[in-house]
Input
Amino acid sequence: MNSTNEVAKELIEEKNQIGFVIFAETQLAGKGQGKKVWESPYGGLWISLAIRPQIDLSMLGITPIISAVGIARTLEHFNINVMLKWPNDILIKHNLKKIGGILVETKVTRHFLNYLIIGIGLNINNTLDQYSIALQDHITTVYEEFNKEINLTTLLHEIIHQIEESFETLRSDGAQPLLKEWKQVDNILGMNLTIQTLEKVYQGKAIDISPYGQLILEVKDVGKVTISSGTVILPTK
Ligand code: BTN
Output
């Protein structure tokens, strides 16, 4: 399979399906944020959840955040402590190396949410030598860190359950409880950093995440800037 997100999109658009999960053992053309290639060797969890939640369109930006919170909760159940880097990176807590990411794709037609595809990639039972040399310094896998294997089907079920819980909380109590959870495992709030967006580069202090999932940056001589998407570049020590 090329990309679970792409297969999900085809099933929705050509076969009118919704409310399903696609699981791939490996992807030939996995997609990451910013049109990057997402390496997806055997042993990882490569999935897409295709849903049409009853949420206000203004809430779309919070969906990667609440999905990440559900994933963090799941991994903690497996005794894997992680931290979250806005907007969609999942890092191993003890060395802050990336073990996963989320790619949410949506389609809105005339103010109606057609679909939400939550693509999740987690490096689980893989070894580092399955990845390109260029990536090996920046990422890690659960197996490399903890020397244990996780049953991918069990993990998949738990992730679905926890993401459903997150959406349920969003519906019943709004974004605040989920943002509170995010902040307990957040890796960038309070830091001075650089953010590369499609339009420009910002430098400032990350001070908060809005109820719509945007990062709020305090920029010198400018004030608060609200950023919807971008790549966070942390200062090197
Ligand atoms: C990121 O850049 O951090 C997001 C990576 C998301 C990768 C997952 S793997 C399953 C799904 N299918 C894809 O093609 N991409 C996502």
